[in-house]
Amino acid sequence: MYFSLVIYFFDVILYNLVIMYIPQKKYYKINHFKNYLLNYEGSEDISNYNNIINELDIKLKNCSRINQAVLAFSIILLIISIAFIFFIIFCIFIFRASKMINHNFFFGITILINLIRLFFSIIDWSMAIAIIAKINKIRKKEDKIGLTNEIKSGIIKVIIILSFYFIYCIFEICIICRYIDDCPNSLFLYNKYYIEEELNKQKNELEKNKINEDEKRSKIIVIPFKDTERNGIVKNDQVKEENLLQLLKDKEKDINKLKDQVNQKDKEINLLKNENKKQIIEIKELESENPYKLKKNEKLITIIFDSSDQKIHYSLICKNTQKFAFVEQELYEIFPEYKETENIFLFNGEKINRNKTIEENKIKFSDHINIYKYDDFNGE
After folding, report:
1. Contact (Cβ atoms closer than 8 angstroms) between residue 124 and residue 77
2. What is the Cα–Cα distance from 346 to 353, expressed in whole angstroms?
3. In angstroms, how far is CA 230 from the centroid of its own chain?
4. What is the mean pLDDT of residues 198-213?
5. Which residues contact 223 (CB under 8 A, 6 or more apart)?
6. Which of the two ends of the chain, N or C, has the fewest CB atoms closer than 10 A to its terminal CB?
7. Cα 165 to Cα 292: distance, rounded to the nearest angstrom
8. In angstroms, rounded to a whole number, what is the distance separating the alpha carbons of residues 257 and 251?
9. 98 class by beta-carbon count within 10 Å (0-12 exposed, 13-18 middle, 19+ buried)
10. How many CB atoms lie within 10 A of CB 354?
11. How open is the CA angle 52-155-111, to the nearest 5 degrees?
């Protein structure tokens, strides 16, 4: 619930930006174009632009209406977001006094509001696209000097914000649907505030009953009455005492039940935390077992090994920062019979230094390394 509150605050910010950047109505008027011509300092011939601005005034009337519609829809969406923020705050205070938050009702309202906002944002975005299409057409044919610069820049900013908002709105719906199924505890569906309040109430009632019981016991003096009427009064007092004791026992049972519920939920939370820790440990173990995890300035390359006896023609993946001795050991793991012999590795006719890295030996991607047994090499 608190997560939704943050989301809608972000919505308010986005639609404030839309309202701020949408072109003002004056930018579509002929007076704006005349002022632009008076202050124009470019090299373009503007002698016939007096006729053009009259045509622009007519052509942009429809765009001006669409622009105002975009503004109106944006204000509506802003009001919806603000109203829903107050609705969430209202729910938080109302549900605090409840045993269980009615999350189905809350999520139903949330998804409905999101669908309405998504529908309005699509309309807003479509109208903004229609305006920019019309402006681009005008700028290509009539407006060569930038009379519509303010309109174009403002509408482009609005389209970018609405596009981001459109994606963000879909993301909100996905997150909300995920939270309703997988993460009920994080949405305060089990209200500990209610349990604490209930425990305090039960405790206060017990204390009051004990005080009343002590007062009544202090007033009662056990005397063997012979009078039947007085005996009846004493019996009534005893019955009341027994009822109070039974009430106290029942209240204690209720308190113990509530404590058991709290402990059970605490255990569930601890189990989830332990599972989380196990998953983190497993991920770290998997990462440590991966020999090809790359650090900064590291890359994977393949090296092709060819033996003089033609038994090896094998491509091996390694990192450019690994020492050649390490790569040699990996090759021996694949061809263990070569462990028994002393071998020489040549690259471009030169002996490879085992203590240097692949990069230091100037070995690159798909380079061929020749393998010779020491005895065969000396025989040659």
Report:
1. yes
2. 9
3. 75
4. 72
5. none
6. C
7. 39
8. 10
9. exposed
10. 14
11. 145
For residue 101, the one-letter residue type is: I
Give me the residue spans of the domains in the chain.
2-41+48-187, 300-379
Gap between the Cα atoms of 356 and 365, Å rounded = 17
User: Which pLDDT score, from 0 to 100, does residue 243 have?
Assistant: 81
On whether the CB atoms of residues 330 and 317 are closer than 8 A, the answer is: no
Angle between helices 103-141 and 49-95 (to 10 degrees): 170
CA 292 to centroid of chain Cα atoms? 30
**327 in Cβ contact with 355 (< 8 Å):** no
Residue 254 is encoded by which pair of tokens?
């209720």
User: Length of the chain, please?
Assistant: 380
Q: Which two tokens stand for residue 173?
A: 């719906």
Q: Is the pLDDT of residue 18 over 90?
A: no
Claim: this prediction has a pTM higher than 0.70: no
Query: Would you state the pLDDT for residue 217?
Result: 65
Q: Could you give the 3-state DSSP secondary structure of residue 216?
A: helix
Determine which of 162-176, 239-253, 314-328, 362-376 has the lowest per-residue pLDDT on average: 162-176
Q: What percent of the chain lies above the pLDDT cut of 90?
A: 15
Per-residue CA distances from 62 to 26, 66, 198 (Å):
14, 6, 63
The domain 300-379: what is its CATH number?
3.10.20.90
Mean pLDDT for 94-105 is: 58
* Tokens read off for 113: 């509001």
Instruction: Report pLDDT for 355.
Output: 93
